[in-house]
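Progress narrative, Year 2. Work on Phenylacetate-CoA ligase from Haloferax larsenii advanced from sequence curation to structure prediction during this period.
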Amino acid sequence: MRDSDADATRLPRDELRDVQDERLVETVRHAYENVEFYREAFDELGLTPDDIEGVDGISKLPFTTKEDFRDEYPTGLFAVDMDEVVRIHASSGTTGKPKIVGYTQDDLDVWREVMARGFRGAGLTSDDSLQNAYSYGLFTGGFGFHDGATAMGMAVVPTGGGNTQRQVEMLADLNVDAICLTPSYALYLAEVADDMGYDPTDLALSTILFGAEPCTEPMRNEIETRFDATAVENYGLSEIIGPGVAVECLEQDGMHIWEDHFYPELIDPDTGEPVEKGEEGELVLTTLTKTALPVLRYRTGDLTTLDYDTCGCGQTSVRMNSVTGRADDLIIVRGVNFYPSEVESVVLEFDEVAPHYRIDLRREGTLDRLNLTVELAEDFDGSRSDLKARIHKRLSSVLSFSPDDVTLVEPGDIERTKVGKVQRVYDHR
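Result:
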């Protein structure tokens, strides 16, 4: 494994830059010499590895996109022979061929280390236990959390996704300290626990590690309240390594990107140009230590902001804020642009509703229509018409847009996600 440990997260910024420069130069040469895709892209730009002397020249490099992964399916982006690959994972492939990713043993060691950093930052130690409610298999989540926790010396309960009643029983019977899962599944887990006669706040859980789908602050607050635990956000993607690219510490003030392994940029999704400091942009990531699959300037599609100030925990690594949406998830209705997370933030301001909703988009003639379905809270006993009117008014005020209709349904009526990512938007147009 590379000579990187938790101390790298506290390096002065100029010393970190030296590490990044050295590793970028090495990565660029490795990609150029061993991946035909990058060699052809460099040649087309009239670029050679010698032209890249550090991260100051990173904007010269070509972008990599999810389409490139699919075009080079299955292993065209690999930089090593298959006899050096010890693990294969893949994206879900819900919109076509999956994105295949490979790991050498060195890559797996790096993955375990960055995951362990996240666990330590969340206050966990080798004395703690972790219930892993992410699915095992081609999806990177299950094995990523499992291997990182094992490297930490934690006891792992590998429940995987689904089988929610068993999840609750394991949490209760084994007094599990931490659990990792999607935020939507965390809320469903709390509901099932209630139905089984367990009070979620009585469980031994102290830490909930969530990720793999967007989560607004109101939803995080709901999760923490339901379990009386600290919920910390994780970020990752298969194309870069899996979970472990970034994670919150106990300050809960943005996710630390492990910059000695992954170099971040923010660009305007329309122009590809860098955004001004402090502005929101599309996150672009370059791997600095990947062997099997080096990736240059990968356009994640995720919209966020970056904070380079030293964190209250003392770590100097840059922090990314929660992803507000994806560049390709932008909803346009009658000329108004917004993201699903913006609707969620408004809806969850209302105590009278539960953190479950869905957006249905339809077209009647030439007119787009948006219907919002919101689930009522268990203890709701007020006026539905008044609540609908207030939701309409608040959305109109915040987004300069309001849905054509708001439907309020009973608790539990909106389908829950038991495995995988939750779907919020249904576009019928």
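The two ends are 50 Å apart (CA to CA). The chain is about 30% helix and 25% strand.
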